[in-house]
Structures are given as C-alpha cells and as structure tokens.
Amino acid sequence: MSKTATPPRYRILFVCMGNICRSPLAAAVTRGLAQREGLGALVETDSAGTHGHYHAGEAPDPRARKVGAKRGYDLSKMRARPVVVADFERFDRVLAMDQQNMANLLRLCPEESRAKLGMFLDYVPEFGLSEVPDPYYGAESGFERVLELCELAARGLLAACEHGQLAP
Question: Which of 26, 83, 89, 102: disulfide with 14, CB 3.0–4.6 Å?
C-alpha cells in the first residue's frame, strides 16, 4: 500500500508599508483562494509592513476589510506588525507590493535569504504592472482595484506553488 505524499506547504509573507491595506488584502486573498480551490494545505500566509510599527496591533483599514468581505475574504483577525529579521528565515517567499518596500526589505534581509524576496505582481507578468498601488489616501475604489490585482497575482502564485515553482 503506497502512501500519498502530502503537498509541500509554502509560507508566504506579503509586505507593504503600514501593513493595514495592501499586504493584509494580499494575504487574505491568497489564503481564501487557496481554500476555495482545495489548496489550503499548500500555503500559509501572513503580512507585515516595513513601517509596521506605525500601525502595530491595529486591524486592517476599514475600507480593506469592507472590500475583502464583499468577496468573501476575512481580514477580521489580522493585526498589523513590522517585518522582523526572523521573517526571512521563517518564510519561503517574501513578496513586496512595490519597489519602495522591496528596497526596505533589501536593507533588512540577510544576504543568504535574498533569493526569497520578490514582487507580488511578478506572478502576473502579462498584466504589465510591477507594483500594487497604495490606496490609503484615496477612495474605496482604490481598495477595490488593489483587491482585483491581488486576486490576479494570487492565482499566479498558487499555480506556481501547485507546480512546485514558488519563485517567479
């Protein structure tokens, strides 16, 4: 009798600036899509901010929670936190929402973990964007746009995980 191998479990950290808008949405969307597609055992997600100390302990922005809830993504238990050096060891992939946060991650990340860094939108290269825009100072429609981008990138990311090709 052969044993069925359990799929690899990937730990993915999503990073934006304050950890109250983009990165919590990215983590919730990726986790939610994985569960809906029967891939929940494949990925574990979390989020953090390069300036997470600004909002440490706070729930995601109410607009992020609202647009997420409209599509069935639960952000209610998430709390903002800063990126810490231990994250680079704990996570298999650390994905930035924009170039500014990637630059901040490069300053924090030990040399031996730099291969784990990437951009979230690298998982949808055909879309032609490299950054998830920060919706914080705008209207709710900006959060809806971020959610759409997160869904596209999360599908590409999950496909890469499912095929054992986590790196973009």
Answer: 26
Distance, CA of 125 to CA of 123 (rounded, Å):
6
Q: What is the pLDDT of residues 44-90, one digit of tens each?
A: 999 999 997 789 999 999 999 999 999 999 999 999 999 999 999 99
Catalytic residue among 46, 61, 98, 134: 134
Distance CA 89, CA 109 (A): 9
Catalytic residue among 16, 21, 150, 161: 16
How far from 108 is each of 47, 52, 78, 85, 115, CA to CA, in Å?
A: 16, 13, 23, 7, 13
Active site residue 11: no
Domain boundaries, given as residue ranges, for the chain: 16-162
Joined together, the tokens standing for residue 41 give 């055992």
In 3-state terms, what secondary structure has residue 133?
Answer: coil
What gap in Å lies between CA 27 and CA 24, rounded to an integer?
5
Per the CB < 8 A criterion, the answer to whether 124 and 153 are in contact is yes
Q: What is the pTM of this model?
A: 0.93
